[in-house]
Amino acid sequence: MNSLFFKGKVSYPDYELNFDLSLPGSGITALFGASGAGKSTLLRAVAGLVKPADGIIRVKEETWQHDNEKIFIPTYKRSLGFVFQDARLFSHLNVADNLLFGMKRIKTARKNISLEKAIDLLGIGHLTDRMPDTLSGGEKQRVSIARALATDPEIMLMDEPLAALDMKRKSEILPYLQRLNDELHIPILYVSHALDEVSALADLLVLLEKGKVVASGKTGEMLTRLDLPLAFYDTASAIIDGKVIAKDPEFCLNTLSFSGGFIQLPGERFKPGQTVRLRIQARDVSLATEKPANTSILNILETTVVNLSNDSEGEVMVELDAKGTRLLSRITSKSASLLKLVKGKPIYAQVKGIAVIE
Ligand SMILES: Nc1ncnc2c1ncn2[C@@H]1O[C@H](COP(=O)(O)OP(=O)(O)OP(=O)(O)O)[C@@H](O)[C@H]1O
User: Fold this and answer.
1) Which CATH architecture describes the domain 3-224?
2) Locate the Mop domain: which residues (predicted)?
3) Nearest CA owner, ligand 1 atom 18
4) Which terminus in the chain has less CB density within 10 A, N or C?
């Protein structure tokens, strides 16, 4: 049983959170929603910091709460790593001692991750002698993540770990989080209300609204579903996980393959075999009923219209299928009418801009 199961109800005087979720036992699952949606409360329920009614909290083979069986394991006995928005390091201990502090309660017999591995994964080897108040916000947070990881937890719970950092620090930490996901098989529950972070990191997305789970599924699919609000954000985007299969040194151009075909992307830094997550904004995708010729746009994909919905005044959001990968295109209502767009219609998607998520 290599999965996560969370069920229960948390009631406050003016608020109720209900959840019933079955999730895979690896990868990053984002708990996403507006302020007050219940993301932190759900994370706290998993940690045992609040006790949900009619609760079942199961993490892989371990049952941490089962009300019918009168099981409730207190937080300190749950094998979890909790990372908060602020790093919460002990200010009187240097980085090495901060890291060791978390490890004291760990039984050495079942260690899968060594302290050295945690230090290496978060790239903090050069910081071990430093005191916390000499570290940048991003460095502190990397230490705090390494400290949680070094306890060799069954699950990592992260509550807006990047929210206190500016964009630059955020983008410094994202690759480390991606690395954790690539190299370890520890499931990560990641609370965020920042769509850019979630689309960069998450394999799965759980959308919460006013104490309820509205929908959950693969991030790429959730971002493009027209029955959910995510596809109507100003920055509405699709994501593509592409694999670098060829380089053209003459034009410094890479070819990436994905389920829907190929994407061409300029840049020196890509290596053959590398998987790259790309973000394609709905605004950067235009549509044509015939394959455009003599155009400067390199990426033209054969797609099918899955769904259409009115967006803002005079605009339409179109959900497209590129052989299993979803894309969005935001066009004017007039263009949608001229192109006679209907569900199931084959259409060429011209991708004008692609951002690499790094
Ligand atoms: N201890 C508490 N007592 C009473 N109400 C609470 C308590 N903790 C949380 N709440 C309420 O529960 C609701 C959900 O809070 P929660 O912190 O889970 O939301 P969130 O989605 O994480 O929001 P944010 O993004 O702002 O952190 C809020 O309306 C909050 O006021």
Assistant:
1) 3-Layer(aba) Sandwich (3.40)
2) 294-358
3) 38
4) N
